[in-house]
Every structure is written in C-alpha cells, then in structure tokens.
C-alpha cells in the first residue's frame, strides 16, 4: 500500500475527453479473457497484455495498472439459438453468437515487480478508487470506434407528417387487388398519402423492382410521403412509410388518419410484403454461399502460424479477405513480421500506439502469422469438432480508415477500393524509407502509345498497382451450350431465378482473352493532334514497362445491361495456375517513329472543346430518376468518362450548394499548388490535372476520383507527351520476367461490390486454404473460376 501511495502522482482520474482502452491490448490481440488478463495503464489508459506491459513501463515509467481478468461461466450445452428479428449483432433480437457469459475480477498491480492489491478495497487511496471506478464505468475506446453491436438506423418522425396535405378526391383504396396506375406491376406498390395514387417503386440495380413511377410522381407533384401497400397492419409503426424529400424510411404519427382519408381500415389489413428493413434482414440471413464458400463440403479446419481467421466486425469481410492475401506476400511478411518485432514497432510508435499505422500493421501481422491465436476451441463436445475464434482487427480498421467516410463506416465496401487505399496509406507511411515500402512489390509501369492519323506518336506513362480487365463475353468457349440453354429457357418462359444453380449455364471466358483485350488497340475519338492542329481519331495501345513482384488482376464483372441497368456478370473465368505476360512488355519508342510535337490546342480548338455533356450518359442517368441539370453536370465533371463515373460523381455531390446552379461555360482552371500536392502523393501530373478538373479543384475529392478510376489515363485529355527513357530500375519499380503463378484470389457474392460477402482462397504449403472471416479450412474445390481479384506471384525461374 505504501508503494502505491508513493506512486499516486502517476495515477490520473480520467476526463471525458480521455480515450480509455480496456478490452484489447494495444500491441497484441490479448484481452481480459487471455491467460494473463489485461493491464490498463492508470496514467495513459492504454491496455497491455501480460507479455507486453513491462515494455510500456520501460518506455513511460508508468508503474500503476488496473488488472482485468475475465473467466467464462458455465453455460448449458443445449441452449437453443434464437432466430433473429432485428438486423443487429450482440443486441436483443439480433443474431445470437452463442457466446458464453463471463465474470470479471480486478486488482491493482504495481510494476516492475507486479505487486498486486485487491480491488475493490476501502483501504485503497481515494484517488485510485475514483480513477478505477471511472475506467470501469466508461465506454471503451475500442467499442466507440468499432461498435461490436450494430443495428440498422432507427426511423425518425417525418418533418412532413404533421402538415401533410390530403386532396379530397373521393378515392377509396380497396383492401387488395392493387396495380400500378401507370404499368402492370402488382408488387412493390406505394400509395401516395396526398392524392391516393398507387404507383410502383424504384427499379433495382439488377433490373428487378418497379419502374420508378412512384418517385417520378413525387418529382412531378412534390407530394412527399408514400406508404408501401402490403406492409400496413394493426401495428402501424411497422408499416413502410417513405419520405421522398428526406430520402429515407420514416415514421408517420398520423398514419391512421392519413389512411382513413382513403377509406383504409388498417386494423383489418394483412401483411403481404416485406418492409425495406425486413428485406435487408432476409438478405443478411440467407447468403447465397454456393461454390464460393464451398457449402455442403466438409471443410477440415486448419490451425497454426499463417492460418489465423479474422473476426467479422460487421460487414468487414472485404477487409478480412484482402488482408489475408496481403499478409501472404513476402514483402508484407518481411516488413511487418519477420524483420520487425512488436517491441521494435512499439518503441518507434508515438505516445498512443493505437493511432500508428506501422504499429497496428505489425500487430495485425504478428496476430495472423505467429500462430498464437490460431488454436482449436472445441465447438461440439459430442463430435469433437473444433473451430478457432479468430482475432478482431478493430484497431487496424480504425487507423486505416481514419478520415475515410466509407471505410470508417459499418457498411460493406469494395475489396478493390480497400486494397488500393491500403497500398496508398502504406506508401505514404513509408515516405521516409521507400526501400522498406512493401506496397512497391505490387507496383508496375504502364505505357500507352497513341498513334495519330498523322503517323506520329505520343507515349504516356503512369504507375499502377492493378490490371483492371474487361471480360469479352464474345470469347466464351462454351457458346454452343449457352445457345442451347438460352433457347431452352426461352421455350419454357423461365427466368434464371426460377432455375436451380446446377441448371444454369454460364459463359466461360479464358483469362488469356481478358489480357488480350487489355493489350489490343483501341480507338480514341476526338483526340487533339498537335501535328494536325485539330481533332482526329487516334489508336491507343497499352503495354507494361515493368513486371511487379505480385500481379493483381481485377475482373470487371459489373457492366451495363440492356435498358442501362447496372448488372453483375454471371460468368466463369478460366484461370490457369501459371500465366506468361511477357508479350505485354513495352518496346518504347521504335526506330522510325516520330513524336508528336509538344503544344497546347489552339484557341479555336479550345473554344470548340467547351464542356458538353455526353447525351447518352445523360439519358442513362435520367432513366434512373435523376434531375437533367444534375445529370449534365455529372457527365461534364467526369469528362464524359462513362455512366459509372458520372453516377459516382452525382451521388457524392448531391448536397453541393451549387448543384442547382447553371452550368458554367468556362473551362475550369486548375490551381498549380493543388497539382503539386497530388504530384507529391506520387500521381502523374497529367492525371492529377484531370482528377482536379473532374472534382472541381477539391484535392480530397480528386484523390478519391483517382482511386475510383484506377485506369484513368491522360490519353483522353488531348495531351501529347514525349517518350521518357527512364527504366524500371531508375524509377524504383520492381521488375523481372513475365511468368506468374496464381497464389490467391478474392471472390465476391452478391449483386453489388457494396453488398454481399467476400471470401479469400490462398495457396499455402502446396494446398488451397479458404479464409472466410474467422473460419479457416482446407479447400477441397477452390472456385478459381469465380474470382473478383486474382493475385499472382512472379516466378523466379523466368
């Protein structure tokens, strides 16, 4: 006790602004449930496992710690699993994770000799008792930043409900037999609560749903609220009411009155349709695992170093799948595991190691690769089945997602976007020691040769980390089977969702055809030639100036279908175990080739090149229900790059103050200081200028634009540049032969990259292993033809 009193000056009482860690070690994945428990520094409020707390004492001199130990309570083995009624994890009504209950014990520990004093105790100094009580009652920083229990947002009362106008039209709505007033749709129908019109809902991404008649009616009339027919029952709060101006599901406290206006007796109505939230819950509880998760197969669990699963934090499978593959590369293993200990990373870290990317990548690397946390836990005592609990990457996610609106959310994300974001963060964090940058092992040079109709050429160069490949369906190798299947389907009048998975025939496209399409010549229309001093049609050919240590191929499975509906291609890619891309090597400026002269377009050409929206893109956006002026701005601000780019711009600029301002007929200038900042990030100047132009000069939005358009080039910017003789060695890029071996792939299930589920398959020790969040097992039938991202390693014997 005297020892404690002599160290009272090193004990702090937490303030509301303090970040208090008490659930997980800052340097490892130890928790209060680990054998040694968890030690909370009573000065910094950082937490450390038993093997690491002495390091903190050596670094800071802080001697007083709260020791927290959790011990599992016995739970009946026959406890039934409850069916979820709420889209949530870890809360009443949510998904039951069947975790045992734990009881906590506490003590005060004084380092360096680990002298222990019981807590609670009236003999402890008052300052210590108050400090510990405050720590125990506070919400841990880990939980604040990465909420373990997540729920769909609760509906709010609409601002339009209390003053909603209702037209006396004499319309009486029958209790059933509804149909859209503008088409033949009999499902997904919405009753406008102002005029009583029954109209169909929005068209979904995959072409299902309605025909947008309800939302179009709102745009014509401004009548704000509609209720989904088939969701009205005696429980009025459960009815699906949508507010168009608020763009959200809402509560209408006067719904009974508003329904009575149209003769609807809600107490007698039956539920026949899912609400929006119920449909989301249904999708979350009924994943279409299919071949990607190898459902129906007895997967043998694997344990040990390199076989540690990652706990799903709530829609974090995109992160888990990506990091499992990244930490299967020699560059990341060497940088954050074999050549950097946890203690080294901690000694280099700032005062709060939870905010340090290097520390948290090292923590994650050691967690995945050491085998410390990949230990079998008995799942069923009767059968002896085992599983592993996995490690939760909360602190890593918090650091890597800091400042990013999407990755810091609990929403599903695109694994490709996250991979590129990760490499960018790692590269920036290694700017003082680029020789230690593991992201460079993925980087390669891309060269675009532009042949003008004058016969002269330009060479544009950039660096990239992925090859994004179109899938040429016309190169399918099973065209006869496809034709027979389509004829059979048409003859029976069936849709694919009416058929079993085994009955459906999908196109099979060789990966070689995708690579050939990437390297094949492509026409560029309206290319400004400095030789002709006017616009012409040029031919662009793309090749690689270097071959990376690890080659990442992104399959563009999301395309525009007939009717301009975005759809995921249901296609198989035949991927060999070994590929050779030697033929894609750039040859550079050839003898006899003459470079296009440098120079900017003349004044007349500039005048004629004033921004004009592509009518086709505008028409596509209009068909989705967007405002025409907004559609034109989206096309212009993305340089008419395509529908997807325009839609992304539109969705991220809907709240701009000037979104409804007339289109300026002045070509926007680009601030040179903004260009310099993007160049310092490693982006080519021409790409930086294009991104700033597409983003209204906003640096953050320009950076996002570049990452959302990984294949953005300067070729469509009317820029003619001379050939650079810089070699891969001079640019610091890795290089070698063109033969590669497949070692991993990320597969995606779902209709969009922003929903569904991601799984990784990795070739380890001569066998394929599936990493499905915390589940890790031997893969008996790896679905190599269903990948979204493919990872290849360069062979050394080229």
From TrEMBL:
Keyword annotations: Hydrolase, Metal-binding, Protease, Repeat, Thiol protease, Ubl conjugation pathway, Zinc, Zinc-finger
Location of the USP domain: 308-795
Catalytic-site annotation from UniProt: 317 (nucleophile), 757 (proton acceptor)
Q: State its Enzyme Commission number(s).
A: 3.4.19.12
Alphabetical list of InterPro entries matching this protein: Papain-like_cys_pep_sf, Peptidase_C19_UCH, Ub_carboxyl-term_hydrolase, UBA, UBA-like_sf, Ubiquitinyl_hydrolase, UBP13_Znf-UBP_var, USP
Q: What does this protein do?
A: Recognizes and hydrolyzes the peptide bond at the C-terminal Gly of ubiquitin. Involved in the processing of poly-ubiquitin precursors as well as that of ubiquitinated proteins.
Q: What is this protein called?
A: Ubiquitin carboxyl-terminal hydrolase
> What organism does the record attribute this protein to?
Noccaea caerulescens (Alpine penny-cress)
């Amino acid at each position: 006790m005297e020892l404690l009193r002599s160290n009272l000056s090193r004990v702090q009482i937490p303030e509301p602004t303090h970040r208090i860690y008490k659930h997980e070690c800052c340097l490892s994945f130890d928790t209060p449930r680990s054998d040694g428990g968890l030690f909370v520094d009573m000065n910094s409020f950082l937490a450390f496992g038993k093997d690491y707390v002495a390091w903190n004492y050596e670094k800071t001199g802080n001697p007083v710690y709260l020791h927290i130990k959790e011990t599992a309570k016995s739970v009946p083995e026959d406890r039934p699993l409850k069916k979820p009624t709420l889209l949530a994890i870890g809360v009443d009504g949510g998904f039951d994770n069947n975790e045992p209950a734990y009881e906590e014990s506490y003590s005060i520990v004084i380092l360096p000799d680990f002298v222990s004093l019981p807590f609670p105790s009236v003999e402890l100094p008052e300052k210590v008792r108050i400090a510990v009580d405050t720590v125990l009652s506070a919400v841990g920083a880990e939980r604040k930043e990465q909420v373990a229990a997540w729920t769909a947002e609760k509906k709010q009362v609409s601002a339009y409900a209390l003053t909603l106008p209702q037209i006396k039209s004499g319309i009486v709505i029958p209790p059933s037999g509804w149909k859209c007033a503008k088409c033949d749709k009999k499902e997904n129908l919405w009753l406008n609560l102002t005029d009583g019109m029954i109209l169909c809902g929005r068209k979904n991404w995959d072409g299902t749903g309605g025909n947008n008649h309800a939302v179009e009616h709102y745009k014509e009339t401004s009548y704000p609220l509609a209720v989904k027919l088939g969701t009205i029952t005696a429980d009025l709060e459960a009815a699906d009411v949508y507010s168009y101006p608020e763009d959200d599901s809402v509560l209408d406290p006067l719904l009974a009155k508003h329904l009575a206006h149209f003769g609807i007796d809600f107490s007698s109505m039956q539920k026949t349709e899912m609400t929006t939230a119920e449909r989301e819950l249904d999708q979350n509880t009924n994943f279409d695992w299919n071949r990607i998760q190898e459902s129906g197969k007895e997967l043998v669990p694997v344990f040990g170093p390199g076989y540690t699963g990652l706990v799903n934090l709530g829609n974090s499978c995109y992160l888990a799948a990506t990091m499992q593959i990244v930490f299967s590369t020699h560059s990341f293993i060497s940088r954050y595991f074999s050549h950097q200990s946890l203690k080294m990373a901690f000694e280099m870290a700032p005062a709060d190691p939870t905010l340090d990317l290097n520390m948290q990548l090292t923590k994650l690397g050691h967690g995945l690769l050491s085998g410390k946390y990949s230990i079998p836990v008995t799942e069923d005592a009767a059968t002896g089945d085992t599983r592993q609990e996995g490690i939760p990457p909360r602190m890593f996610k918090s650091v890597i997602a800091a400042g990013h609106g999407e990755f810091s959310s609990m929403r599903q994300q695109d694994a490709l976007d996250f991979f590129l974001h990760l490499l960018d963060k790692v590269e920036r964090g290694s700017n003082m020691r680029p020789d230690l940058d593991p992201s460079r092992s993925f980087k390669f040079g891309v060269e675009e040769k532009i042949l003008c109709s004058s016969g002269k050429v330009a060479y544009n160069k950039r660096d990239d980390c992925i090859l994004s490949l179109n899938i040429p369906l016309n190169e399918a190798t099973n065209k006869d089977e496809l034709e027979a299947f389509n004829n059979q389907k048409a003859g029976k009048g069936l849709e694919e969702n009416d058929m079993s998975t085994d009955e459906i025939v999908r196109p099979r496209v060789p990966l070689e055809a995708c690579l050939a399409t990437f390297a094949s010549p492509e026409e560029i229309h309206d290319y400004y030639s400095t030789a002709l001093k006017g616009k012409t049609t040029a031919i662009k050919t793309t090749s690689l100036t270097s071959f990376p240590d690890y080659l990442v191929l992104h399959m563009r499975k999301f395309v525009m279908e007939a009717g301009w509906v975005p759809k995921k291609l249901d296609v198989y890619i035949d991927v060999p175990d070994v590929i050779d891309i030697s033929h894609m090597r750039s040859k550079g400026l050839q003898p006899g080739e003459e470079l296009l002269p440098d120079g900017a377009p003349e004044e007349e050409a500039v005048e004629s090149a004033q921004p004009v929206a592509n009518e086709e893109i505008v028409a596509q956006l209009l068909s989705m229900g967007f405002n025409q002026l907004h559609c034109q701005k989206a096309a212009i601000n993305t340089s008419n790059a395509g529908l997807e780019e325009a839609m992304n711009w539109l969705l991220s600029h809907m709240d701009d103050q000037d979104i409804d301002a007339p289109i300026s007929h002045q070509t926007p200038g680009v601030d040179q200081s903004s260009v310099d900042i993007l160049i310092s990030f490693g982006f080519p100047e021409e790409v930086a200028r294009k991104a700033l132009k597409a983003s209204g000069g906003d640096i953050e939005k320009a950076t996002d634009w570049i990452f959302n358009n990984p294949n953005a080039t300067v070729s469509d910017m009317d820029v003619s540049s001379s050939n650079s003789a810089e070699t891969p060695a001079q640019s610091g890029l890795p290089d070698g032969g063109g033969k590669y071996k497949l070692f991993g792939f990320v597969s995606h299930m779902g209709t969009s990259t922003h929903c569904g589920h991601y799984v990784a398959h990795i070739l380890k020790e001569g066998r394929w292993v599936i990493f499905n969040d915390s589940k890790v097992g031997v893969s008996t039938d790896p679905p190599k033809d269903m990948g979204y991202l493919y990872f290849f390693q360069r062979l050394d014997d080229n």
